[in-house]
Amino acid sequence: MKKNHLLLVFTFLLVIPYLCSLTIIGIGYNALVLHSAEWFRSMVGSLCGALIMFAIKATIQRPLDLLANETTEPLLKQSLRLFSVRRRRKLLVFNIIIDFFLCYGATILVRDWLTLDQIVGTTIGYVFLVMFISTCLGAYVEYDQLALKPR
Fold first, then answer.
1. How far is CA 134 from each of CA 11, 13, 32, rounded to the nearest angstrom?
2. What is the DSSP letter of 45?
3. Which of 85, 90, 106, 110 has its CA 20 to 30 A from that of 126?
4. Rounded distance, CA 42 to CA 138, Å?
5. How far apart are CA 9 and CA 105, in angstroms?
6. Is residue 90 within 8 Å of 143, Cβ to Cβ?
7. Tens of pLDDT along 46-86?
8. 18-22, 58-62, 147-151: which has the highest mean pLDDT?
9. Alpha carbon of 15 to those of 30, 32, 117, 134: distances in Å?
10. Is residue 58 within 8 Å of residue 85, measured between CB atoms?
11. Taking Cα atoms as reference points, which of 5, 7, 6, 15 lies closest to residue 130?
């Protein structure tokens, strides 16, 4: 697979949905939690978000492994490993810690950039729409490579 093609699939199937997932966690937290700006509540929300992100990453292991097998570029291989949950326990803990801080940042950014009416309103629908379109485009671009083939 060409490098540009691989980057396109990586962007549409992994990066954009990952960022949308962080945004959804930030929107959901700020919409559901009263006094969401308190640091302790934000930490608990970020921990829950990090565990949700870990569960999401478990569902993309097959396409991730297929993409990792196709690349020889070291930077892209490392980027793909960021999403992997099939690694040593120490790296899994580090991965959850990174997700924790990213979820914490997402809750703060959503709180600072959007008004409460926007958070409670239709913003989450737009984020889901972007995630859906991105995933559809990524799957369309590389359907043959990511399809499960009978042996």
1. 8, 7, 26
2. H
3. 85
4. 33
5. 26
6. no
7. 999 999 998 888 888 877 777 777 788 888 887 777 777 77
8. 18-22
9. 23, 26, 27, 9
10. yes
11. 15
Q: How far apart are CA 144 and CA 151, in angstroms?
A: 15
pLDDT in tens, 30-39: 888 878 788 8
Collapse the DSSP code of 133 into the 3-class scheme (helix H, G, I; strand E, B; otherwise coil) and give the result: helix
Of residues 150, 131, 151, the one with CA closest to residue 60 = 131
Residue-range domain boundaries for the chain: 9-146
End-to-end Cα separation, the chain, in angstroms: 22
Mean pLDDT of the chain: 85
